[in-house]
Amino acid sequence: MSLKYGMLGLLSKWEATGYDIKKEFDDFMSIFWHTHLSQIYPELSKLEKEKLIESKMIPQNGKPDKKLYSITDAGRKELYQWLEAPSETPNVKDSFLMQTFFMDNLSLEDVLFQLKHYQKQREARLEKLKQTLYEQWQMIKEKNEFSTRLLMSSAVLKRGLDQEEEYILWCKRTIEFVESLEYLWNLEESNDCATINEVEEAFYRYFEVEDLDELKN
Amino acid sequence: MSLKYGMLGLLSKWEATGYDIKKEFDDFMSIFWHTHLSQIYPELSKLEKEKLIESKMIPQNGKPDKKLYSITDAGRKELYQWLEAPSETPNVKDSFLMQTFFMDNLSLEDVLFQLKHYQKQREARLEKLKQTLYEQWQMIKEKNEFSTRLLMSSAVLKRGLDQEEEYILWCKRTIEFVESLEYLWNLEESNDCATINEVEEAFYRYFEVEDLDELKN
DNA sequence: GCTGACATGTAACCCGTTACATGATTCC
DNA sequence: GGAATCATGTAACGGGTTACATGTCAGC
User: pLDDT for A42-87, tens place per residue?
Assistant: First the structure.
């Protein structure tokens, strides 16, 4: 349902082709959404049928003709209504966390490998976002202007950066946590169980609390 | 694709009915996945056809008969293969961030309202997770045992808590950021633009950097 | 000569959601 | 009497992904 509004939102700023829209989704908007050209084109047709957007054909030389879409008043109204409506917290789908949840089935080495590998992936994403921030800020400095548009996109960019940084930090801390309780993997083989006292400290350190009651505020 | 492995993962620990599986997804596993009974039942049939799980009917008095599923050796193998495979970083879909991205279309009041409203939603989720952590820890203390199973589920729980805390913090900081640049909304009406100097400080404060070059490490 | 950017689409398929359908028991 | 819990499913629909299909031009 959000794809529709993402497209209306973009067309509320500029006229664009399906191809242009895809590039925005792949670039900055990839922080919060992604889609495919094969989804965009039918959706554009649908929105045009609903009179929320309209199009004109632009012939080009050396390149294929393109269909330039623009938003209508009805489309703007629809967009504003969605923007004002409170949005529910999305149901996350994080397959890496699902893997992690069942990783007690793996050997200690495999667990650590998976965590370190995933951390690297997240680090690569963080670098890309930092690059985006740098470019955006340079663009602002050149143009010497700052608008509410740039304010809100900076907020989204900050969220993207935070998210990556936090995931990386969690990977690091979880690696330490797992390593500090390494011996649990050996116990498992002998069908034995660790006692609480040996674990308590590592647990509190990992959760950054002093004791249990701290959670009850 | 991950639902399959979530179900296999659960059945690798206990025998369960479709109904039991749904409860797990609604409870702890909601940190990283969610699904519906109407998706679980057909998926169970499919997995049984593929010989990854098998079932037996359990007649009950006072309650409907139930179909208790258990994992097969082939199912275990399939699960372990998935666990060992590196997982790609998921493509996020965050409709609130999408809204935020286009919120320059709203009035300052509406922007602040949306941010504050969403923050409250996240705070409610955080409280629920803290409760889960408290309960899990109490259970561990009672049983006086700690296993790799509990270790990995603690890691996932920690990630859930961090995520909520970080989102809440981002909401707070973004509210401050928006408020500190309040006057941009008034400029917009007069088709004017703010100059860079007036904005630079607020921007650096929000992104927690000293200057631009700090991003280039 | 090949890859990638530009440009638009269709078709098949899979996954996920909502609605429909049934029926007993327990608790308020 | 009504809602919630236990328990299993089907059907319709909508959203998202992969594969297929076509064609030009620029740069390596």
Answer: 999 999 999 999 999 988 877 778 999 999 999 999 999 999 999 9
Contact yes or no for B54/B69 (Cβ under 8 A): yes
- The answer to the question of residue B206 being in a domain is no
C-beta of residue A74 within 8 angstroms of C-beta of residue A51 = yes
From B59, B84, B109, the end of a domain falls on B84
Nearest by CB to A31, from B97, B169, B184: name it: B97
Secondary structure (3-state) at A192: coil
Looking up residue B13, the CATH number of its domain turns out to be 1.10.10.10
Nearest to B177 by CA among A32, A155, A141: A155
Residues 6 or more apart whose Cβ sits within 8 Å of residue A180: A202, A205
Are B113 and B160 in the same domain?
Answer: yes
Helix, strand and coil percent figures for chain A, each rounded to 5: 70, 5, 25
A57 and A107, same domain (yes or no):
no
Q: Which residue of B has its CA nearest to A25?
A: B98
Q: How many whole angstroms separate alpha carbon A203 and alpha carbon A105?
A: 20
- Chain B residues within 8 A of A149 when measuring between CB atoms: 104
Asked if A93's CB is within 8 angstroms of B33's CB, the reply is: yes
Put simply, whether A204 touches B (Cβ < 8 Å) is: no
Other residues' Cβ atoms within 10 Å of the Cβ of residue B77: 12
Nearest nt to the A64 alpha carbon by C1':
C7
- Name the strand (E) or helix (H) holding B58: strand B53-58
pTM beyond 0.70: the answer is yes
Does a structural domain hold residue B164?
yes
Nucleotide nearest to A93 (CA to C1'): C16
Q: Is A84 on the interface with B (CB under 8 A)?
A: yes
How many structural domains does chain A have? 2
Of A100, A156, A173, the CB nearest to B156: A100
Residue B173 lies in a domain: yes
Q: What is the pLDDT of residues B182-207, one digit of tens each?
A: 989 887 666 556 666 778 889 999 99
Instruction: Give the domain extent around A49.
Output: 2-84
Q: Is residue A27 part of a domain?
A: yes
Both A24 and A73 in one domain: the answer is yes
Question: Are A39 and A99 contained in the same domain?
Answer: no
Last residue of a domain, one of B84, B119, B136: B84
